[in-house]
Every structure is written in structure tokens, then in C-alpha cells.
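Before anything else, study the sequence and C-alpha cells given here and see whether the fold suits the sequence. Record follows:
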Amino acid sequence: MRDNEIAPKAAILTSAQCWSLLSQTHTGRLAVNVNGRPDVFPVNYQLDGESLRFRTGNGTKIDAINDDGRVAFEVDSVNQKEGTAWSVVIKGDAEITSADSHLLNAAERGLFPWQGVGKAHLVRIVPETVTGRSFTLDASVTQHVSFDEAMRAGLE
């Protein structure tokens, strides 16, 4: 249930605003279908025009993408000092590049996965949709409710 007294005010972002925000951070969450169930993985990414890419090794993400290349990717940020937040979601198709590709070697310089060893695949997400929202809390809300609780209430 949503309590409008503490829900943040949301604004719909344009595609250009979404891409601009995506360029300001480099960590997001990849959502894939694993054995008929959704699963989410944090990944470091890099923009490449109006697509994004990340490196990964063999395992659950690659297996899931090989089974069903339709993915979602979410990036968000919270500025507690200003009482603002945003979230961008990309839905599209994931394309895998193998370890012997010159694209992977060129991308390695700018992509630094948290577990950098053995990341032999470059994955590019080609968007079908890019959507985003920004949120601003009223000053009255920030005095009585912590920012995290107000955000959580507004997103439930």
C-alpha cells in the first residue's frame, strides 16, 4: 500500500535524460531469467552510444543470456543531501562477444569488473526501451521520515 503523505514526487525522464544519467555512474543491476525465475546481478558497465556493455565470465549470467537474451538493466542513484533520487531501466536484447574478439580487447581498458579475472565475454545490451523516473522529497517529509524509508514507501 502506498501512503501519499510520504511518497516521493516522481517525474518521468526523457530518453536523453536517461542516457545522461547513465553516463554519470558505472554500476547497475542486470536482470535475467534463470531456470524460469528472475535473478539480478550487479555489474560494472560502460556506455557505447545508445547501448551499454559489460564484461563477465562463464557462469549463470552467460548461461541465462544464451537461453534467453531478453534482459532488463537498472541503474539508480540517491542524493540524500539534496533529497533526490533517480532510476533508469533498460529492456532489450543481450549480445555476447567471445574472448577472441578484438572488441573485448578494446573494451578491457575501460571496463573493470569487481572480479576482474576470467571475464572472457563482452555483453552488449541493445535497448528496446529506456525509461526513467526522478524523485524529489518534500522538505516536510525529510524532517519526519528518513530518506531511505520515504524512498522505500514510494517505490512499494
